[in-house]
Design goal:
Layout (H helix, E strand, L loop, with lengths): L5 E2 L13 H10 L4 E8 L14 H14 L5 E9 L19 E5 L2 E2 L12 E2 L4 H10 L5 H18 L4 E2 L9 H4 L7 H16 L3 E5 L1 H4 L10 H9 L4 E4 L12 H10 L4 E6 L2 E6 L1
Parallel strand pairs: 1-2, 2-3, 3-4, 4-7, 7-8, 8-9
Antiparallel strand pairs: 5-6, 10-11
Helix pairs in contact: 4-6
């Protein structure tokens, strides 16, 4: 058993991916994968331009059910959602997805708001938006305070971990995605290192599984997978289980950089990783 046996962070044309579910399934079979998990971005019961529209959720579930039956014996397909966390609006919790009955949920934070914004509808700032948009949000919504922007991201992530029930955590330091271009914070600063340490402790305390995500590197946004080596080393120190995912938005990237992710895991001290099966997580040696 190896990391190439499965990918569970997969986006299709139901949200912001480039390929249909069938095209992704066919590619998974061609690559010799054992497990394929579909994980459309979802802000249930709401949506945005890059989340699955609420009106399409049932069609998504129905198509996955049909593909599960069709590909049985060739590929095990799992139904999931990359479920958004926005306090008071959306949460990656199985209790909120009872109707959809997913096989798994990915907990994800993509937005923050400025806690000082007391307006009736605080503006959501996407931490992984285009670089110009992220820079503009820091300047306008956070009054140029990039540190507050970063700290709010980790505060939301910890709040999600403490309050929600999901299967694994997506890209634990997604805040790094535009930092290569914008340089709006320094990962070696003491305050940042304290943020990731506190977040790692929160993850461990709540028994959360994390992903090693190669998507940012595949798209040229980062020089290493999420989370960073320092963050991942902390997670290993606190005995947090991890699995490898591609965060694929196109079929060619279903297993992109899995060799890089394995080396990243080993460098952080991991000797074992997780594979998600229809019966839950199983451990394999790397």
């Amino acid at each position: 058993m190896n990391a190439f046996s499965g990918n569970y962070h997969t986006h299709s044309t139901y949200c912001d991916g480039k390929n249909t579910l069938r095209q992704l399934a066919d590619t998974a079979v061609e690559k010799g994968m054992t497990y394929l998990g579909f994980s459309s971005h979802c802000m249930h019961p709401f949506s945005s331009e890059w989340h699955i529209p609420v009106r399409s959720i049932q069609a998504y579930c129905d198509e996955i059910a049909a593909l599960k039956a069709e590909y049985a014996g060739k590929l095990t397909i799992l139904k999931g959602f990359e479920a958004e966390f926005i306090p008071g609006i959306a949460a990656p919790d199985f209790s909120r997805y009872e109707t959809q009955n997913p096989d798994y949920l990915i907990g994800a934070v993509h937005f923050v708001t400025n806690p000082a914004d007391t307006g009736p509808v605080p503006r959501l700032c996407a931490v992984d938006d285009k670089a110009a948009a992220v820079a503009a949000d820091i300047e306008k919504e956070f009054h140029g305070d990039a540190k507050a922007f970063v700290q709010e991201y980790f505060a939301w992530e910890r709040a999600m971990i403490e309050s929600c029930h999901f299967t694994f955590l997506a890209h634990a330091d997604l805040i790094r995605r535009r930092n290569k271009e914008l340089h709006f914070f320094d990962e070696t600063d003491g305050w940042y290192r304290r943020e990731i340490k506190e977040t790692a402790r929160t993850i461990a305390r709540h028994g959360v599984v994390v992903e090693i995500n190669t998507g940012g590197q595949a798209r040229g946004c980062t020089d290493s997978p999420y989370p960073s080596l320092e963050f991942l080393s902390l997670l290993h120190k606190y005995d947090v289980p991890a699995l490898v995912n591609a965060d694929a938005h196109e079929k060619e990237n279903l297993t992109w950089g899995f060799d890089i992710a394995m080396d990243h895991a080993k460098a952080a001290g991991y000797g074992e990783l997780q594979l998600l099966t229809e019966n839950g997580f199983v451990t394999y040696t790397i």
